[in-house]
Amino acid sequence: MTASSRDFPPRAPSVWRRVAPVMIGWTAVALFFANRMFYSYQLLGPPVSWRDAIAWSLLDWYLWALLAPLVFRLYRPFPLGRGAPFRNLLVHLGLSVTFMAAHSALYGAALWLRWRTYENVSIDDLLASLFLARFHFDVLTYWGLVFLQMALDYHRRYREGEVRASRMEAQLARAELHALRMQLNPHFLFNTLNAISALMSRDVAAAERMLARLSDFLRLTLETGRSTEVPLRQELDFLRRYLEIEQVRFPDRLRVDMDVEPGTLEARVPSLILQPIVENAIRHGVAPSSDAGHIRIVAARRNGDLMLRVRDDGPGLAPGPSKIREGVGLSNTRERLRQLYGPSSVMTLTNAEGGGLDVTLSLPFRSAARIPTEMEGD
Q: Could you read off the pLDDT of 308-324 as tens digits, one per residue?
């Protein structure tokens, strides 16, 4: 038996991988100041070797590397610019002197014990000299760490604000999509129930069959009512259930062909995106005529996009430059595409060659390996 990576939890980053970049940063700072120390001593004397300059500078900044986490921790309960700003400022003024003294004491003790550079100077005199010589620089270093933590806090809060805003925007979009779905369902139900009512006066059996098909269709839509997107395979199943309803109304007059590329069946599409387009084709292309009507549905992949086309052989668009008037179904479909895909989607209505209306949708091709629901992320 072989174990896959899914059998084990993901590894947490090692301590070294988290600490190494920090230590590399402190080392770079130390080398920068070692260079400054070397040339300063060459000019002002007494000269020091590169080895001593690097060793002393590394000791200096590695001590700050050890003190920095404590500085960051103490900043959190006393943040500048929030809470009690004046009190927090006084706290950090006191802490800056405290950390300066602690760093100078550690640095001076290490120099005295390791290098014996100041063997003719007592440890007390050495520390006193370091306190005076390094006071301003160490205090500024402390404040540099405080401002670094302040900047990191501002960045974290900014990112958290962005995430919250993104979630609110997503929730608003889902609410708008849900409202569009709720607008579409009554529109469809009204048209279907009106058709059933008309059938009751001349063909009760057909009306009963249509009512049964409607019940099946509604049950199927309720089962996936929380889904913003569904696989194209499922969307076509919805559409077939709807067409069963319409074929009760037009048993000898409605012919539907589907030309669907197999590679598109798992593409993600908005739930019930085709039904209002086909309904529009039936209403304007089939119902007004006593002749048989033909609707062709095409799904294909074109240059990374999914192309969906619904074509009827009805009268098409009226000639002339007049603005196309879209009903609830088509305008609703256009708005849903805008909400989900923005400028990445296109919906066009054109007269088809040979007559009829050609409605084409183009949207990003995305696999349906994972379909989010309207309520996810809330």
A: 999 998 888 877 554 45
